[in-house]
Amino acid sequence: RNSEKLRLFAKELHLVDIKQSCLDACLERFGESSEGTGCLYHLTSGNDLHSIASNSATLVYSWDSMVHFDKLIVADYVKEIARILAPGGTAFLHHSNYGAMRPDSDWAKNDGTRSDMSADLMNEYAGDNGLKVVKQEIHGKEQGWGVDNFDCVSLLYKPG
Hints:
Strand order of the largest sheet: 4-5-7-6
C-alpha cells in the first residue's frame, strides 16, 4: 500500500523483502515500470541491501515492518541505509520502541510482536554510521497503538 503512493513521487522505486512471494505480488501489481517509475525488486537475506548501489538512494522508507525486527537486525539495516543513501538523503523509519520498556525481551511475547528496539538505540546506530537523527516521534495510545511508547518514527539524514 505504501509503494502505491511512493511510486508517484519517484523515478525509480526499489522494493525489498525477505519473501519472494511478496516481491512477486508487487511485480504483478506494478510490473517493471509504473506510470513512468522504474520498479526494481530485491530479495534480501534479512539484514542487508547488498543489491542496491552505494550512495544511490535519496529516500529510504520503511513502515510497519521494522517494528518486528530484532535490534541487531535494525543495526545491520541502519549500516546498509547509511551506505546506500546519497549525501543529503533521508530515511523515514517506523520501528519499535518497546525496548525502552522491556529491553532484551522476546518479541514473540511482546505486545504486537514488537521487538526490543528503541528510539535511543536508533540514535546510537545512526550516529555510529554517520547519520543524523533529524526527528523522532514516539507513538502509543494517542495514535491508536494500544500501548504507550509502543513505536517510534525516526527521520535520519546523511550529511552532504
